[in-house]
Design a protein that fits this description.
With 289 residues, the chain is mainly alpha-helical. The chain is built from 13 helices and no strands. The longest helix is centred in the last third of the chain and has 36 residues.
């Protein structure tokens, strides 16, 4: 006698649920199109001259010549400006992590009222508008003798990034089980070893999020770099050098688009390297919420 097993019945999705799925899909694809069309226009315009841009804005370029990129790099010294931006951004990121990681570790392990007060003091940094600190920063740069230098910007940028970095990393480190720290301490690990071998490996998604968000902020910083560093071609960053492509006699929009696209390549590379860790951090936050 043979027995037959009934196939599992597929669970029917309610009609309201399917409607919501279709609607969310349409909205997602529509939003993606809104983002892709300007990006497409931006890329194809970097291979055109002004006449082609205005007569056929969305048409493909007649050639893929790199003359606009070469003109942008040579006329505005974009290659040197990119090196300056990499130097400023890289040093500022290292300083930010060197300051924010130990501070977050101490705040995450603190159990008294003082720790909560200090954490709120860091959070108050979000309330300070950028323009409010401009004049005191100018005076500080002049008093320290670092005016018109990249060094002052390297020390300034981590100060602006500390509130966000400390708040994010503290929340990640609070999620580390205390049992792991206690086990490491029983094996003779010092607090610095606990931080390096227990907390940091678990908090890699949080560190990657801090690095990515601050990289975008530091790379695109314009106001303080323009005022503190100035227009010196030997020290100016990419965001200060890029507007010099606009001439008084007129603007070659193809060259301007090519120069802007050239400056976005490092941003794309960094985002590609860190996006998976940042997605893990966002998913972890959603699960906790």
């Amino acid at each position: 006698m043979t027995t037959t097993t009934a196939a599992p019945r597929r669970r029917r999705v309610p009609r309201t649920g399917r409607t919501g799925t279709y609607a969310s899909g349409v909205l997602a694809w529509g939003y993606a199109a809104l983002l892709l069309i300007p990006f497409y226009y931006f890329i194809i315009s970097s291979f055109k001259d002004n006449e082609q841009i205005f007569t056929d804005p969305l048409g493909l370029p007649t050639s893929l010549s790199l003359d606009n990129f070469a003109e942008a790099i040579s006329s505005a010294d974009l290659d040197r400006a990119v090196i300056n931006s990499i130097l400023v951004t890289g040093c500022a990121l290292v300083l930010t992590l060197l300051l924010a990681v130990p501070a977050s570790f101490a705040l995450a392990r603190a159990t008294g009222r003082a720790g909560r007060v200090i954490e709120r003091v860091f959070a108050l940094g979000f309330l300070i508008p950028t323009f409010a600190a401009l004049f005191p920063t100018f005076l500080l740069a002049a008093a320290t003798g670092l005016f018109h230098t990249r060094t002052f910007i390297i020390f300034l940028l981590p100060a602006t990034a500390m509130p966000l970095a400390v708040v994010i990393l503290t929340q990640f480190m609070r999620a580390v089980p205390r049992e792991l720290e206690e086990a490491a301490s029983m094996d003779g690990a010092s607090p610095s070893m606990v931080l390096r071998h227990v907390y940091l490996p678990i908090c890699i998604p949080g560190v990657a999020t801090v690095v990515l968000l601050n990289f975008l902020s530091f790379w695109n910083e314009y106001l303080y770099s323009l005022i503190i560093i100035g227009p010196d071609p030997a020290q100016r960053t990419i965001q200060v050098a890029l507007p010099t492509l606009k001439l008084t006699t007129g603007t070659d929009y193809g060259v301007l688009m090519a120069g802007t696209l050239f400056t976005l390549l490092p941003v794309y590379l960094v985002y590609t390297l860190l996006q998976r860790q940042m997605q893990r951090a966002l998913l972890a936050g959603a699960v906790k919420g």
